[in-house]
Design goal:
This protein is α/β, with parallel strands linked by helices. It has 8 helices and 14 strands. Among the domains are: 69 residues, membrane protein fhac (Ubiquitin-like (UB roll), Roll); 141 residues, 3-Layer(aba) Sandwich (Rossmann fold), CATH 3.40.50. Strand 4 and strand 5 form a beta hairpin. Helix 6 runs parallel beside helix 7.
Length: 306
């Protein structure tokens, strides 16, 4: 029996095999990225990540670098050398100091107090501190300091003494604001200045000057002022006369007495004390010799025998 074999025609083409379908990946993010994206929506987390974290890392890096003592010393030595090379340039160096408006004694005191060694860099001069030091000196009323080129210029306004204050430690020169300028050499050396005495009189220097101005018509009879009991003034005149002024309204009370002295010659009489401490009842105290003479005249007129 003949075997029959089936053959395919030449035009036959096998059907193409279907391509495998691509497996779609899960579009959902992983748990880590989901939480990360959620945290990035938080302003505080973004600030910590972008600012705090870099700052902490920088601090840790600097700390790790300077933990080595040798590296630390070399770094600060380099900074010091850089600063020194800059501040000690010739254009920044101050080589001299001038003092204007101060006498020889005060100028010497200023140089001693400032004790500045020249040359010195202008960066090392603390003008504000120098000015405060100068204002701490009693004779200095005002001070100005500036650096002009390579010269330190100091302009001083000295206090002008207008009163001579007698204290337990001697005579002191006082200006119009009550500041003690310096010690006085003696009364004769400052004979043109009025004299005042009493503990705390310097604090009331302005009132003392007002009283002296009111008492000007009395001329050379005024010997000085005495601050009594830390509350009021006495005007001391020649011939052992004294005007006791009240605690309040002293200037007005003195004006009335000066007017009476000019019109009625009150202070030309044998009066030792004019007491104005009680404004409504001024009191006159007669000199002791005048009282004795009055008694003698009284006894003679009455015929009284001792």
């Amino acid at each position: 029996m003949q075997q029959i074999t089936a053959t395919r025609p030449s035009y036959y083409r096998p059907a193409p095999k279907p391509e495998p379908r691509a497996v779609k990946s899960d579009p959902a993010p992983s748990r880590f990225w989901y939480r990360y994206e959620r945290m990035m929506l938080t302003p505080l987390f973004r600030f910590a990540l972008r600012v705090v974290a870099p700052f902490v890392l920088a601090v840790l890096a600097v700390h790790a670098y300077f933990a080595d003592q040798e590296r630390s010393d070399n770094f600060f030595l380099m900074l010091h050398e850089l600063r020194t090379s800059f501040v000690e340039r010739p254009e920044f160096m101050v080589g001299a100091m001038t003092i204007d408006g101060a006498g020889p004694i005060l100028a010497g005191d200023i140089r001693e107090v400032l004790h500045t060694d020249f040359p010195i860099s202008s960066f090392d001069i603390d003008v504000g501190s120098m000015r405060e030091t100068l204002l701490g000196l009693s004779p200095v009323k005002a001070a100005q300091i500036k650096i002009d080129g390579n010269v330190l210029q100091i302009a001083i306004e000295e206090r002008t003494p207008v009163l001579l204050w007698r204290t337990q430690d001697g005579l002191q020169l006082v200006d119009a604001e009550g500041f003690v300028v310096s010690a006085a050499k003696g009364r004769l050396a400052h004979g043109d200045l009025p004299l005042m005495a009493g503990v705390g009189a310097d604090v009331h220097a302005k009132e003392a000057l007002q009283l002296l101005k009111v008492a000007a018509p009395l001329g050379d009879r005024v010997r000085g002022l005495a601050w009594v009991g830390d509350r009021r003034w006495d005007i001391v005149l020649d011939r052992d006369q004294r005007i006791m002024l009240p605690e309040n309204g002293a200037v007005g009370a003195l004006e009335r007495i000066v007017a009476m002295a000019q019109v009625q010659d009150l202070l030309e009489r044998d009066v030792s004390v004019v007491d104005l401490r009680i404004g409504n009842r001024p009191t006159l105290r007669v000199a002791e010799n005048s009282v004795e003479n009055w008694w003698e005249v009284r006894k003679t007129s009455l015929g009284v025998k001792e």
